[in-house]
């Protein structure tokens, strides 16, 4: 397989490495991944995260195992096991479906390697297209609110929602970004703030429950978020807390945009209620741990509700920014995603 380099994923010298996003921003540690069980663990522990990146990391591992001589049967099982790791993000399913097609080819090793390279390069191009279209929606001087992390750390390219923000900054639109810290695992505070600082984009970090006061004070001009799955009717799943922002944006009449590649669109999913929502470990809510240390504030036996995602109804969305265009509610009602 050729050399492939992204911000948090790389394949060089016959070795697959992933950046440990759980340790950011204080430590940059790369894991060399050689097995399905290891990749599953990295994904489940959010060391590898971001819907596009999860799919690509799994894809590169399957191609690597094929080059290492794994049998067709072992590779088929690897694809099935990896696909089952995260149930909500459809990009993983998209990538594994593509790898199944490659696996039935006569020269399946070359086909798997070629497909992995194609999917990686495709994501770079999708990010560029989304970023360009999203940046066109940004006016000079805008204050943009975003949630979770949707930048280069989560993709092979420059990102989805954060990629559009990055592109607007490159166009010298003098923007400012409000960054939700994104409880409970602080992907905004740890990762989005980290990327914005590297890109030298002005930003201010806020707790998730501060967004409403900012909107009431007219300090938010637009909201850009990503997606882990978009249903055929336009409903979408994203990091929990996104639905809160959409409701608040509707009340305060603030444009609310979803930025995602077409690989996140699930035409077989009729609506948001059909999207499976992953429940995560209670330990993520009763305390916090990471490269910054560990602290527990709730009783050890506290009952916890900890969905990884929530679903935002299509009627709260101003526009869907895909790599193929910007779509309105009228477009979606006309069935463009079906």
TrEMBL record:
Belongs to the EIF-2B alpha/beta/delta subunits family. MtnA subfamily. It is an enzyme of class 5 (isomerase). Its EC number is 5.3.1.23. Keywords: Amino-acid biosynthesis, Isomerase, Methionine biosynthesis. GO terms for biological process: L-methionine salvage from methylthioadenosine. Substrate binds at residues 49-51, 86, 187, 238-239. The keyword ATP-binding does not apply. This is Methylthioribose-1-phosphate isomerase. It comes from the Bacteria. The keyword Kinase does not apply. The record marks 148 as: Transition state stabilizer. Pathway: Amino-acid biosynthesis; L-methionine biosynthesis via salvage pathway; L-methionine from S-methyl-5-thio-alpha-D-ribose 1-phosphate: step 1/6. Catalyzes the interconversion of methylthioribose-1-phosphate (MTR-1-P) into methylthioribulose-1-phosphate (MTRu-1-P). Also catalyzes the interconversion of 5-deoxyribose 1-phosphate and 5-deoxyribulose 1-phosphate. Part of a bifunctional DHAP-shunt salvage pathway for SAM by-products. It catalyses: 5-(methylsulfanyl)-alpha-D-ribose 1-phosphate = 5-(methylsulfanyl)-D-ribulose 1-phosphate; 5-deoxy-alpha-D-ribose 1-phosphate = 5-deoxy-D-ribulose 1-phosphate. GO terms for molecular function: S-methyl-5-thioribose-1-phosphate isomerase activity. The active site is at residue 228.
């Amino acid at each position: 397989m050729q050399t492939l380099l992204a911000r948090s994923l790389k394949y060089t010298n016959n070795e697959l490495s992933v950046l440990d996003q759980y340790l950011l921003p204080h430590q940059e540690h790369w894991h060399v991944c050689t097995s399905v069980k290891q990749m599953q663990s990295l994904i489940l522990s959010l060391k590898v995260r971001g819907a596009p990146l999860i799919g690509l990391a799994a894809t590169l591992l399957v191609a690597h195992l094929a080059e290492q001589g794994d049998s067709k049967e072992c590779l088929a099982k690897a694809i099935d096991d990896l696909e089952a790791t995260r149930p909500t993000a459809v990009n993983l399913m998209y990538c594994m479906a593509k790898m199944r097609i490659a696996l039935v080819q006569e020269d399946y090793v070359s086909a798997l390697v070629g497909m992995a390279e194609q999917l990686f390069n495709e994501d770079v191009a999708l990010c560029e297209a989304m970023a360009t279209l999203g940046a066109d929606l940004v006016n000079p001087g805008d204050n943009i609110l975003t949630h979770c992390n949707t930048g280069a750390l989560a993709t092979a390219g420059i990102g989805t929602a954060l990629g559009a923000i990055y592109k607007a900054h490159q166009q010298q639109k003098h923007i400012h970004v409000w960054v939700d810290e994104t409880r409970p695992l602080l992907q905004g505070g740890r990762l989005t703030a980290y990327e914005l600082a590297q890109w030298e984009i002005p930003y201010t970090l806020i707790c998730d429950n501060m967004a409403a006061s900012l909107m009431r004070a007219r300090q938010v001009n637009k909201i850009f978020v990503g997606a882990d799955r978009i249903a055929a009717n336009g409903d979408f799943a994203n990091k929990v807390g996104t639905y809160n922002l959409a409701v608040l944006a509707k009340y305060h009449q603030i444009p609310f945009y979803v930025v995602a590649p077409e690989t996140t669109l699930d035409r077989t999913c009729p609506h948001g209620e059909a999207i499976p929502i992953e429940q995560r470990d209670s330990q993520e809510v009763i305390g916090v741990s990471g490269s910054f240390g560990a602290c527990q504030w709730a009783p050890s036996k506290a009952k916890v509700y900890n969905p990884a995602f929530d679903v935002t109804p299509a009627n709260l969305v101003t526009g869907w920014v895909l790599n193929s265009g910007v779509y309105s509610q009228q477009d979606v009602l006309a069935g463009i995603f079906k």
